[in-house]
Structure formats: structure tokens, C-alpha cells
Amino acid sequence: MVKHKKILRLTRIALLGATLYVAQISLAFLPNIELVTLLIVVFTKNLGKDGISACFIYVWLNLFSAGFGLWWATYLVVWPLFALLVYKLRKIDSWLIWAVINGGFGLCFGALFALPYIFISPTYALSYWLGGISFDIVHCISNFTAAIVLGKPLDIAMKRVIRNMKNIR
Fold first, then answer.
1. How many domains does the chain have?
2. Read out DSSP for 57-115?
3. Which of 80, 91, 108, 165 is the most buried (most CB within 10 A)?
4. pLDDT in tens, 40-56
5. CATH of the domain at 25
6. CA-to-CA distance for 124 and 129, rounded, in angstroms?
7. Domain range for residue 41?
């Protein structure tokens, strides 16, 4: 029985990671509009550390499909750190607060990506961030909107799935 539960858990983490990846590539044609942030909140709020583990699967799937670059190293830090933040705040029940957190993450995304460039040149890092601030604003608005519109329904659906999973033997 213990082995069965481990297999179910690993399968769940793999499927959550794949879901994050599919959510990302399905909206890739829209600049800085994504559901990954929202899904990480829903997964991590409801499944705890498994949501963080799913982030690593998501990051690795991106590496396999797009290749290695500085962007990937940043992904390897930024997404799991966001999931860790969600894990620490998982008791928050207000989707308005989660929408603000999602929007804030979208607004900060470009700045987080500029951090590695500080080691090359602080001026370059600043110009890199400022050059993409309009995309960060779109990211902020879309993350906020997605959380307001889809957050609660996805959260309810996830709770229902978890409840039904407990019945699997």
C-alpha cells in the first residue's frame, strides 16, 4: 500500500508539472499572458510541497523543449521560489489577495530576470529591466485578471479532485 501511494504521488507531481508546461505553451502566442502563475498557486495551496516539485518538472520540460540559456537558470530559481512563497502563504483564503500576489509577481518578473545581469553590469541589468517594463505591466494585469476570474473556480475544482483521489485504493 505504501508503494502504491508513492507511485500515485509521483504520478500526480509529473502530471501537475506537465499541466504547467501545457498551460505555458498553449498561450505562448500571447506576450506575457500565462496561467502558470495561477496554477502554481492552486496546486501549491492545495497540495503543498507537491506544487513546488511540479515547478521543477515544469522548468525541466522547458529546458528540454527550448534549450539551455541564462533564462533557464533564472526559471530554475524564480518559479520554485514563487511556489515556496505560495507554500508559506497557503492559508490565505481570499482570492483578491491571491490576485494581488499574482499581479505583483507578474510585475516583478522582469526585474527578477534582470538580476543575473547585475554581475555583468548593474547599468545593463537596469536597462534590461526597464526595456521590458511594458511587458511586465501586461504580465501583472493578466495575472491579476486570471486570478480574479479563474482562481476560485480552479481552487474548488482542485479540492474536488483531491477529495475524489482519496477514494482511489
1. 1
2. HHHHHHHHHH---HHHHHHHHHHHHHHHHHHHTTT---HHHHHHHHHHHHHHHHHHHHG
3. 80
4. 999 999 999 999 999 99
5. 1.10.1760
6. 9
7. 2-165
